[in-house]
Amino acid sequence: MIKRIKENLIRQYKALCLLLELLNEEYLFILKRDRNKIGRNELSIQNLLAQIFAERKEFFKLIKDEFKTEKIDEFIEKLNGDKQEIKSLIDEIMEKEQECKICVQRNADLVIALLDQTKELLNNLTESIKKELSDQRLYSSTGKVEPKEVKPLFFDGRC
Questions:
Q1: Which of 37, 48, 81, 146 is least surrounded, with the fewest CB atoms within 10 Å of its CB?
Q2: What is the pTM of this model?
């Protein structure tokens, strides 16, 4: 059982290392504004997160079945010879999770900053167009630019 727990922890650690790489790639794709690569990368991240979740769930099932606990500290206390190795693996996993958390926050901050920048540019462009056209022309219901004042037309009643 200890062997299965160690293997599970090693898989979690390797998955988190891969997640960190994917998050760093995502950052570069965001900087380059490459939507296609961002989308594909995001799918990979989502699939990897699902796998990490499954591994984590299996880990807690293993320690619950074997050691009758769901708390990591209690699990480590109940270990005999492999205590230091497993504690070291768990510490490395927690450290890698923190690195991933920092990357996720960095990526989110960058995306929000780019969104704000784009919105501000669009607002400035819209305002400059409104100022230019406010005195001269208006858009009609068909989307064409027409003079502001529409002169009355003469109807003679013929079809």
A1: 81
A2: 0.77
Give the fold, CATH level 3, of 2-139.
Methane Monooxygenase Hydroxylase; Chain G, domain 1 (1.20.58)
Q: Contacts for 109-115 with beta carbons within 8 Å, 24 or more apart?
A: 110/27, 110/30, 110/31, 111/30, 114/30, 114/33
* Residue 78: predicted pLDDT: 87
Q: Where are the domains of the chain?
A: 2-139
The angle formed by the CA atoms of residues 146, 151 and 155, to the nearest 5 degrees, is 115
**What distance in Å separates the CA atoms of residue 43 and residue 49, rounded to the nearest whole number?**
10
